[in-house]
Amino acid sequence: DSMLDTQLAQNNTEQCLINDIIDHPPIDPSFIVNPNLTAPQTFADVAGLHLIYYSYKKYLLKFKEEEIIPGLSRSNDQLFFISMAQVYL
Length: 89
What we know:
With 89 residues, the protein is mainly α. The chain contains three helices and no strands. The termini are far apart.
């Protein structure tokens, strides 16, 4: 029963990602995306990002908040997500 619940939750999340991909097509119309093919990988990417961010925040609780990098107007959280976004550029 727990395994079925997990599978249903994953299916619902993947359907949500499919809908999001459909609702937000690429800016470049020559870039074709099949949401049914990309959803499982996107799901894995989102789950991985969630785990990495959770681990980062847990690390900060155990040690201490990192200092802001001088000269940058971004918080460490913002820099975390900017660095993750670089993977997709």
